[in-house]
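Sharing a chain and its predicted structure for anyone who wants a worked example. Both blocks are below, sequence first, tokens second.
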Amino acid sequence: MKWLALVLLLANAALWLYGDTFVPERIAIVSEQQVLPRVADLKTDAPVTEEKQPPPPQPRLGQVEPVAVPDDPEPQLYCVRLGWFETAESARDAYRSLGSPGMAYEVLEEERELSPLHWVIIPPQPEDRAQVLFQDLQRRGIDAYLVRRGENKNAISLGLFESEQAAEEVLAEKKRQNLNAILANFPRNQISYALVFEDELVPDSGSVEAAESEYAGDFDLVEISRCEGVATAPENP
């Protein structure tokens, strides 16, 4: 038994020597504490790309972005001129019937030229002949008028007409009666009154056009424009 134990001991020693000779050199393990390099110390051959900015956030479904709403335009002062009226009092009544708009109003008296009348006359002639002819027309029952003043003095008027057609029909009738009548224009002017007042309207909103359309149904003259003031001596509403 002693010999057997001795043999085994020698065999183990031989194996240890054999393995230490032919096995590759063992790698030594470094035990010192290692420090990782900083990012700035690293070098790379790849091109540096610019960092992209994230896209702007998109509105979520059902979310409405606020829209800037322009301020409402301010009303401005407008001058309203309406006509025509036969008397100043009728113009004042019209202002009150409109609800007395504005802070001041004025009634203006104006002499305006109207369309001439169509005049059927027998031209001027010497006074004695015009007097004889006029008396003859009266005896015959013809409506006539002897002009006694003006540039048509001693003419005989046979009628004034607004309608040119009506005047031409009367002229044809007088010629059938062997009267030397002609057709002339009779100029005329008329004193009328206009109502002027201030009102606040919003430009470019349709309010000016709406006011013009509304007044046009009741007045022959409708003028609406911007103004600084209406009357030099305004009347109280």
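Comments welcome. DSSP finds five helices and six strands in the chain.
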